[in-house]
Design a protein that fits this description.
The protein is mainly alpha-helical. The chain is built from 3 helices and no strands.
């Protein structure tokens, strides 16, 4: 039984999100290698393949990677707000 719910932590099709991202990244590398070869041989579909590869990276891979990387609130130590800014200013005095 394979269940895949987008936007939650349940992705049992690939085991976990890290495996899914690894697979998507390998697909991206192969895609760009094929596009580079087509560009090198001056094939008319070369620019289309390269453009679709960039769109794949921008709209599929990167959003999933950003969600996976920062889903547990790991980003909170990098946010500058009044509390962290005032704390740094007091430390300098």
């Amino acid at each position: 039984m394979s269940k895949c719910v987008l936007g939650s932590q349940v992705i049992s099709t690939f085991g976990n999100m890290k495996n899914l991202l690894t697979l998507l990244f390998i697909i991206f590398l192969l895609w760009m290698a094929v596009g580079g070869y087509l560009e090198y041989t001056k094939h008319p579909k070369g620019p289309i393949v390269m453009g679709l590869g960039v769109m794949y990276l921008s709209f599929i891979f990167m959003p999933m990677f950003i969600y996976w990387r920062y889903k547990d609130g790991k980003y909170k130590k990098y946010i500058i707000n009044d509390k962290t800014l005032l704390g740094k200013m007091k430390d300098q005095e």
